[in-house]
Amino acid sequence: MDARRVKQILSSSADIDVNYNGVSVWIDTLNEDGRTATVHLRGDSDSKHSNVDISELNEV
């Protein structure tokens, strides 16, 4: 995924399914470097937040 698409997903009101390593995640923010994002497990708002490379995010 690229930074442009991450920004679109973040600004959308639609429920867009995104996977990281085959696991469904919510994107919380696109980090300032434009190459990483903070995500957490979908369905578990208390889950640990992780910084991941956006190239490893896949829209389902």
From TrEMBL:
Lineage: superkingdom: Bacteria
Q: What does induction of this protein depend on? A: Expressed only in the forespore compartment of sporulating cells.
Q: What is its main location?
A: other
Where is this gene product found?
Spore core
One Pfam short name: SspH
Q: Does the keyword Zinc apply?
A: no
Query: Where do the record's region annotations for Disordered lie?
Result: 40-60
Q: Which InterPro entries match?
A: SASP_SspH
Q: What keywords appear on the UniProt entry?
A: Sporulation
Enumerate the Gene Ontology biological process terms.
asexual sporulation; sporulation resulting in formation of a cellular spore
| Annotated Basic and acidic residues bias | 41-51
A GO CC term attached to the entry = endospore-forming forespore
Regarding protein family, the annotation reads:
Belongs to the SspH family.
State the protein's name.
Small, acid-soluble spore protein H
Q: Which gene encodes it?
A: sspH
